[in-house]
Write a structure and sequence with these properties.
By secondary structure, this protein is an alpha/beta fold. The chain is 43% helix and 13% strand.
Length: 314
């Protein structure tokens, strides 16, 4: 079982704090829990909340010593973090443990010096503050999350869920991550490079959502789908389709299609014994070589290597 210590730095953002505690325990691998999640804080007991709502956390920072992954959630302590927390994070980094942050937790990682020279992100509202206070950080303010090997950072609120699903996918594969996403009633895959916010969160009253067109495309991933096909289904021009697709998803139609196809290929590699060529065909990636290139670029593994690493078939 993978052990996760969620480090709460007061005053805590209670929504961010709840994300790992809800998402990771929903992961079930071969009938057993995939994660053990422990909340910890420098001074156990009643911990003040950033929004005025306190929480009770019973474990101290000793929980971090036995954890495989440390996650620092959103906090109002952007100016100066607790030295005890910074020491724990530096020690964990030196030991090669995976360290992640959600929202303004990135400020704590930056205070510990863990983001110097690294690409990272945080909640866009505090991007200017991050850039001014920590110029050594390669800040990427417009993305949902950044995976830089052993250090991961996410934007605010819901982007923390995307980061957690990304970590589950890295640990246990797409089948496990998508199962958790379904339980959470959210999209199974939003790429980290997707924009933090979209210009039009809801379609205009005079128009309609493209959700039906996306569902239509998902049912036909193995087919050759061009922009004109999607536009024809939505009964709009290709230009309107592209604009509205980006407004609703933060990605272009073809970018979205590619991400869905790679994710479908992952599921097929994990859960079936289909040949590599058949997986490529059914996912819409065309050829085994195309599948190999996209999977290498996305996961650093060949299709056969991915199957060995993540297959849950007995």
């Amino acid at each position: 079982m993978h052990r996760i210590a969620v480090v709460a730095v007061p005053p805590v953002t209670t929504f961010d704090l709840s994300i790992p505690e809800v998402v990771f325990p929903a992961t079930v691998i071969d009938g057993a829990p995939g994660y053990e999640v422990t909340l910890c804080t420098p001074d156990p007991g009643i911990v003040p909340g950033y929004n005025g709502t306190p929480v009770v956390i019973e474990r101290g920072l000793d929980a971090a010593a036995t954890a495989d992954t440390l996650i620092v959630t959103g906090t109002g302590a952007r100016a100066e973090g607790d030295p005890r927390v910074l020491d724990v994070l530096r020690t964990a980094a030196a030991q090669g443990k995976r360290i992640a942050s959600i929202c303004t937790g990135a400020f704590v990682l930056a205070q510990a010096g863990l983001l110097d020279g690294r690409p990272a992100t945080t909640y866009w509202l505090f991007s200017d503050e991050m850039r001014e206070r920590f110029p050594a950080v390669d800040l990427q303010p417009d993305v949902l999350f950044v995976d830089d090997g052993r250090i991961l950072t996410s934007a605010g609120l819901a982007a923390g869920i995307d980061l957690c699903l990304h970590m589950i996918r890295a640990d246990y594969g797409a089948v496990a991550a998508n199962a958790v996403a379904r339980l959470a009633v959210m999209a199974p895959f939003r790429p980290g490079g997707q924009a933090q916010f979209i210009e039009t969160p809801l379609p205009p009253e005079t128009g309609a959502s493209l959700a039906a067109t996306r569902e239509w495309a998902l049912a036909r991933l193995e087919q050759r789908l061009a922009l004109r096909d999607l536009a024809a289904h939505a009964n709009v021009s290709t230009r309107t389709l592209t604009r509205r697709f980006r407004e609703e998803t933060g990605a272009s139609p073809l970018q979205w299609l590619l991400h869905q196809r790679v994710d479908r290929a992952r599921e097929l590699l994990e859960a079936t014994g289909l040949s590599i060529e058949e997986v490529a065909r059914r996912s819409g990636l065309g050829t085994a070589e195309s599948l190999r290139q996209h999977l290498l670029r996305r996961n650093g593994l060949t299709p056969s290597g991915y199957r060995v690493a993540f297959s849950r078939r007995r």
